[in-house]
From TrEMBL:
The keyword Nuclease is assigned to this record: yes
Pfam families in the cross-refs: Vsr
SUPFAM superfamilies: Restriction endonuclease-like
Official protein name in the record: Very short patch repair endonuclease
Gene name, Swiss-Prot/TrEMBL: vsr
Amino acid sequence: MADRLTPEQRSWNMSRIRGKNTKPELLVRRLLHSKGYRYRLHGRAGNSRLPGRPDLVFAGRRKVIFINGCFWHFHDCRVGQHAPKTNATFWEAKRTRTKSRDADQCQQLKAAGWEVLTVWECELKDGSALEAHLVKFLDAPQTGAR
């Protein structure tokens, strides 16, 4: 098969995938900034780092937002359920660990009094629904004790 990548090519491709400042993250950031919301980036709340390094931190509101890629975080949409055919065992284990780690980090944040919202890449297609969802989350009163 001519379309298969060598391990070196695959490694090079994988090294180019970013974890910060991704297109989905930038889209959400621009949307929220245009609505007047201000936030800190990548898990900073004052001088400390939060578990899981949330993409957006609203310290005054005690709320955080994660912006997750459907494939990488094993979302239940069509893209998230796609199973790679090459090295399938490795990818299944890696994605399962990521999903488990996400759940642990959300639990740690909630235990510390933070409210957590996960925005999935597939949700970005409907801009008005996304905007309504984000505004509802951010404007809702804080429910957890500090």
